[in-house]
Structure formats: C-alpha cells, structure tokens
Amino acid sequence: MEIREVLRGDLPGLLRLYEQFDKGAAAEMGGPAENIWRGILADKNHHVLAAFSGGRLVSSCVLVVVPNLTHGGRPYGLIENVITDEDCRQQGYATALLDYAAALAQSAGCYKLMLMTGSKKESTLRFYEKAGYNKTDKTAFIRWL
C-alpha cells in the first residue's frame, strides 16, 4: 500500500473512483475538470490524498486546511470525499488515509479535524468513530446550492 498526495497524472484514476459515489457524480475529463484539477493542485491548503495498490488508485480522501482567526489563529481541517473502491474495502485503505490526513492536519497546526458523511449505515458510522471522530461534539447542517 502506498499513501501519498495525488499528482497531476492521477486525475483519470481519481475520477474513475469518484464514479462509485454515484454515476455522473465525477466531473468529466476534459477542459473543465482539468482546469479545476490545476486549481486544486496549486492550492497549498487543498490536499487530495490517495492510497494505491499495485500502482492503482484504490482509495482517496480530501483534506482542506482552513485558515482561521479563532483558537489563537490555528487552522482547522475538513475532510471530504472519502471513498474506497468497492473491490478493495475492509482492507485498511481508508483508515490509512484518514491517519495520513490527521498527521498532515496536525503538522499544519490544525486544532481540529471535521468530516461529514452522507451515509446512515451503522458500519460506516462505526468506522469513523473507530478512526477517532465523534458525532456528539457538533451538529452539522447542510444547505444545497
């Protein structure tokens, strides 16, 4: 297992993985996706992390470090788009990625790390709790735009 930040050439594998969120959920290769990708890669606070098996991208999550004027000016981290290929689940990829993201957030000086999941599956919620996240400290709301 290799865990690292993605590189420019990892976009096709990442989009292929994102299709497992929902068909049509991933941006299509081409102009718009590549422009978005360049912007993400240029943003020092935006970290797309990936796990590879045999050179194939099999799991990913995004860590965004948000500058902040509270908590002594310490930033906080947001985790999004946690996904593991359907054929590679229950093998530790997402756990390794979340640990890597936490270490990266800590090295950036973050005072907390937050994530939300759209899943209501008890196994998914237990997975995040086992990874060190709790569902009792905050209440999350979402407004779709």
Automatic annotation (TrEMBL):
Q: Does the keyword Acyltransferase apply?
A: yes
Q: Which InterPro entries match?
A: Acyl_CoA_acyltransferase, GNAT_dom, GNPNAT1-like
What GO MF annotations does this protein's record show? glucosamine 6-phosphate N-acetyltransferase activity
Give yes or no: UniProt keyword Transferase: yes
Residues of the N-acetyltransferase domain: 1-145
Query: Highest taxon of the source?
Result: Bacteria
SUPFAM superfamilies named in the record: Acyl-CoA N-acyltransferases (Nat)
Sorted alphabetically, which PROSITE patterns does this protein's record hold?
A: GNAT
Entry keyword set: Acyltransferase, Transferase
Protein's name according to its UniProt entry: L-amino acid N-acyltransferase YncA
- What organism is recorded for this protein? Sporobacter termitidis DSM 10068
